[in-house]
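Can you give me the bound-state structure? Components:
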Amino acid sequence: MSTEDPQAAQDFHHQFDKVWGNPRGLLALTIVNHTTIGLRFLITGGVFFLIGGLLAMLIRTQLALPGHDLLTPEIYNQVFTMHGTIMMFLFAVPVMEGLAIYLIPKMIGARDLVFPRLSAFGYWCYLFGGIILTFSLVLEIAPASGWFMYAPLSSSVFSPGRGSDFWLLGITFVEISAVSAGVELVVSIMRTRTQRMALQHMPLFVWYILAMALMIVFGFPPLILGSILLELERAAGLPFFTVASGGDPILWQHLFWLFGHPEVYILFLPAAGIISTIIPIFCKRPIAGYRWIVLAIITTGFISFGLWVHHMFTVGIPHLAQAFFSAASMMVAIPTAIQVFAWLATIWNGRPVYEPPMLWALGFLFIFVAGGLTGVMLALVPFDWQVHDTHFVVAHFHFVLVGGMLFPLMAGIYYWLPHFSGRMVNRSRARWGFWLVFIGFNLTFIVMHVTGLLGMPRRVYTYEAGLGWDIPNLISSVGSFIMAAGVATCLLDIFLHFRFGERAKRNPWGADTLEWSTSLPPSAYNFATLPECATRHPLWDTPDLQTTIEQGHHDLATIDHGRRETWGSDPVTGKVREIVHLPGNSWLPFYGALATAGVCISLLCKFYWVALAMALVSLALLLRWSWENGAHPRAAPNAEVVEGDPPLHSRTHDGPGLWGMMVTLLANSSLFLSLLFGWFYLWTVAPAWQFPEHNPINWLALMLTGVPLTIAVIWFVGVVRRLRRELTDHLQQHLWGISALGLVHLIGLVATLSASPLTPQASAHDAVISVMLWYQLLHSGLAVILTALQALRVRKGYVGKMAPYEPVVVERWWVYTAGVFWIIYAVVIVLPPLWELA
Amino acid sequence: MLSPFHPLQMALGLIVWALYFVVIYSGLSVVCTHSPPPAANAGALNTVNLALLALTFAVALSLFYQAWRGNKALRKEVASHAQSGASEAPLPTRQFIARIAVATYLVAGTATLLTGLPALVLIPCV
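Here's the bound-state model for the whole set.
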């Protein structure tokens, strides 16, 4: 399709709107389109930012004067805990994800993310989890143990109310959202780039988001596990963190910071991606050192996982072990410095224009470099000991987080605002906003370094006069109010621009990346036709790209089949391999998240049977979601494509769903490895850990339950191999047989577990084994259900020779489940006697 | 052996570094808890540190070897590309991957040395 006739072009776009358009009113809850979901994340994150900011103002007001009694100690504890929690979990991560969800498909030349219902589900989980958590503030029962919830302070003994439960359940709920976005972004970037966009052509922002998403996939599960264990300790008395029963509170610190330090880079990397996008545009030249920056991104992604113990330098770890983490903490500054020098070189060689986005980018450079330098100071163990838990650390991490995340975010918002709204901001108000925030921030936090060096500890609700802290605290408080005025000015500017802003012309900043080739604001399908992109600067090389896309001069122009489609491409070369058909609007993500919120609220109220019922409802909804896929009438019953186009992904053996399963299993294995780490940690380090005289698990019975599981896996692998050769005789019977065998294993596992004299409330040893076996039960149960559903789908004609894709996906789950079973067997049954022998 | 142009090579060096990091940290923790070196052997050069240093040098050497191997393959690829008369711009994907991979191996080797070298001077288990 290609037309230059305006009427024909209008009809052409009208057809696309019919397939891709967003409904209004109540039906807007069914929208799954990435543009809408991304904006919802951004707006909701903005609201949480204001709530977190309000709490910061309360803190600064309380500390402005010595002996101030605006807040009681109890409320102050809740306020600083919720300030950190909201800013980290409900603002920073979701907003960065929202920006990525909005931008990534547009930058890679796709029409949507690859799992749109997952984006919507993630958003609703985030919203409901955030509301539940924030509601605790209104009830005055908010968590009060710090944003890191250290045990034993957060345990039921020292925090007997519901505050810690709100944190643990609410945050776990919100993290579902983060991990689902992580999976979605990885697969979308790897598998749906437009024709010929090879790795070396990807915009740097996309590289940064790929690293961020992979870090979320590996980094969030340790905290999810830690939260589950701590909640099990609080609610059911399983003593993972209780020394007397063989647990260890330091395990919590490890699990928390295994997530917590990478988290800083999960926030910094997308922020640096914004900077790497903006600086070349406002310097009118390509970025200096593209390959160096890619190398720095990969290096940061890895080394940032080797720093977590630098938050624990004072807990009594041997000096040599501290030196490993100290070295890694200093090394991570090197890739960061590479990026800083690349940005400086770009500015040096360019002709900088100081538009509002560029101002925020330069503000970032100043503040982040300063924060990085105090970070290197803190990486030195003796210095860290001196300033640990003082306001110096508070000042440092605000420099890193506000400088490294908020400033680039504001740069990005000002840069992409014409994309969101089709209008330009008022430059004068924008400059006022920037300078107020910049001056206010530096006044607050530069001085706070001094307060810390003078010895003022963190998390104290007040202080006595005459300690030398009065003046610096007052200056910090004044600075924070100037910063708040700056934020208010920016918000006013952004609000007003939607009504009064000058209309943005096409590609208003003269950018080079594909997102600026959509209409402003963009349509739900981004591109009517998908262009080739074998360059890093498509819009600089082909300035009329938007016109040719709109006139239908590129690929995948057919829409009369009624399917939402985008390219599925090779992860390395970007060569098109299949057409990915995407699901349309659906209530299922909303209802699924609502049911999951029901689980969360029921657990908070200790209505455990209701929680179980809600969990089953949630599972049923998610399974229904999986049912409407592939050749289902609501997905792609008709596999016809235009001659010369590749097949639909559901008619191949290697669609994005397979990648989705693999990345999900990576996240899952990160959680399982964290559990194994917990087992070995308590075994080798916990002071009161003891193996019972006799293993409570019957080794023979457990081994026998593994036999049907292993046979089922081998059988499944064989079935998939035959399916790849298009041999589908008795496929349904095979699948029923595998499911039945899995059921035999499941029954055996339940019988073994119930026959075992485990006392999970009495010892950490039994508690960890119980969690491992529950984890196994969950996986085995899901394998049985998924396989039974596959058999039903074969019967319905949704799976078979013409649509062989789904069993390939389920096969991975079986292999993982069997692998986990035998690893559990090895560490619980085989290793302990060997250790005793050694 | 994985081809020097395989995309996994871009991360493999740092995956090895991460595994090395886990092994030395967990290994040291377990040794210090269950069988710390005897007090008479209290200097930095004892069996624990020597084992750590040996592992450090072995891992670093293998990473530098991989960087050398990748660089050799890359030069060969560039030469054959030049002989065939193809243009260097835009840089072909294979070369892009190999260049990043070589650099990553160098970074990982250096990171391994920097991580392990404190064992030359610090007493373990204190």
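A couple of observations. Residues 356-508 of chain A form one domain. The mean pLDDT of chain A is 95.
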